[in-house]
Structure formats: C-alpha cells, structure tokens
Amino acid sequence: MFLLSCEMRGYMISVSRQNPLALYIQLKELIIDKIEGGEWKQGEMIPRELDLQQMYNVSRTTVRQALTELVFEGKLERIQGKGTFVAEKKLEPIRPELTGFTQDMEEKGHKVQSIILFKDIVVPNKKVQRILKLGTQDKVWKLDRIRLVDGLPIGYHETFINISLTPNAELDKYNFASESLYQALVKEEILLGDSEETVEANFPNEVHSKMLGIETPTPVLEIMRTSNLKDGRPYEFSNMVYRADKYKYSIKLKHQ
C-alpha cells in the first residue's frame, strides 16, 4: 500500500491513494477528526492551504475542495483577508416543548439580548390575517426584534399577537430588550396551548442580510410558528429568520 503521511502535533495523519474514497473526502475526515477531537478548537485558524498541501502531500485542488465543502457544512469559516477558522458551534434550541428563544439559549448558558426595531398596534398583512383568522380591519400587537446571543446577531423575529383575544394584557410595560415574550405572557396569565411550526431553508432578503450582518448570499433558516390559546384560537404568529451558519434546529421524537 502506498501511504502518504506526516507527523503533526504528535499525531500520525495519513491519506492513502489505495483507499477507495476520494482524497478530498479523506482529507475532510481527517480535518473533522481534529475538530471533534479538540485539537483544532472553535475560533482557531487552521493551517494555510499551502501548509495543508505539504502536510498531506496532496494537490491544491484537493485541499480547496475539502475546505470548501467543510465551509458549506458549517465546520469551517472563511474570513476574507485573514484565513480559514474552525467555526463556532451552532446554537441549538431545546425541543419538543414550546419554549421561547430566550429560555432555549439561557438554558444552554448563553446571554440573550434583543434590539427592539418596532413595537406598536398595526393592521397586519393578508398572510397574518389568514393565519390568525382576522378581519381586514382587525389589529394586532407587533414586535420586531434582532435576537443577539453572546453579543452576536443570530435571529430576526417578527411577532404578531391577536390582542383582541386578551384585551386586558399589558404587553407594553415589559422591556423586551432583555425580557422574554413568552414569560411576559405567563405573567399576564395568558396560557398557550398547541403550536405549529414550519421550517424552511431560504436565502435572506435585503432586510435580513442587513440586520444579521450577512455579507454573502448565505442561506438562512426560516421558522414560522403559530401558537393557539388553550381553547384552540390562534393567538400568536412569529416569523423567525436565523443565520444558518450559527444556528441549527433539532427535534427529539418518541415512539408511541
């Protein structure tokens, strides 16, 4: 067997031309092993392309293909003018219970803040009217926020609440820059029942790109959630857009 190998940081690393896997796939797996094994840490710059070529005795094309796929998969991150870095671990919400973004992130030890862009009573668009079963002149309470986790903008939330169903609620008294909307609803004795979510992969529009600091056409994760009151009437609709390079969505399923 013809084996190409090199010694790096005390570990034997090898790429084999006798292996049926393409060389770039082998290189990808070796890089992933270094990341998952903790040798290359989050936020750390990895060796340059030329260094990787020499270390593994492979071509520039092989190195570039491996790195490009790892960037696409969210394992690595390229920063123009600086280099390629191990990507920060994506934020992951807790499911399947209905919880808010603030609770999800705080339970994982992150600091959550919001930038309030808009908060007022409005007549919503036809899509929201249909989802919340409103008349053409019915109004909702609307809250637009940029969600920050550990100081980094992660999500853009638009929330619509059918205030006609809870006329005594005083949502304007809460500081949603630091307080959770769902916790505020609990304090107002508004108890939600079932919720339904739709998850899609999309490209960001101009507003999302600007608010989330996305410079290239990077995909985003769009989650649309409709929450009902205990009696089944639709009460809240939220359209949430997250940076797909920083956020992932997972669900635990149980067999009945």
Ordered list of secondary-structure elements with their pairings:
Elements: E1 3-8, E2 11-16, H1 23-36, H2 49-56, H3 60-72, E3 76-79, E4 83-86, H4 101-106, E5 112-122, H5 126-131, E6 140-149, E7 152-161, H6 181-187, E8 192-202, H7 206-212, E9 220-229, E10 234-243
Antiparallel strand pairs: 1-2, 3-4, 5-6, 6-7, 7-10, 8-9, 9-10
Helix pairs in contact: 1-3, 2-3
Protein name: HTH gntR-type domain-containing protein
Domain HTH gntR-type: 21-89
GO molecular function: DNA binding; DNA-binding transcription factor activity
How many helices? The count is: 7
Our count of domains comes out at: 2
**N-to-C CA distance:** 51 Å
Give the % helix.
10-25%
Order of helices and strands: EEHHHEEHEHEEHEHEE
CATH architecture of the largest domain: 3-Layer(aba) Sandwich
Total DSSP E strands: 10
Class by helix and strand content?
A: alpha+beta
The name CATH uses for the topology of the largest domain is: Chorismate lyase
Classify the beta-strand content into a percent band. Answer: 25-35%
Largest sheet: 6 strands, antiparallel
What are the segments in which pLDDT stays under 50 over at least 5 consecutive residues? 1-12
What is the name of the CATH class of the largest domain? Alpha Beta
What gross morphology would you assign? elongated
* Mean pLDDT over the full residue set: 84
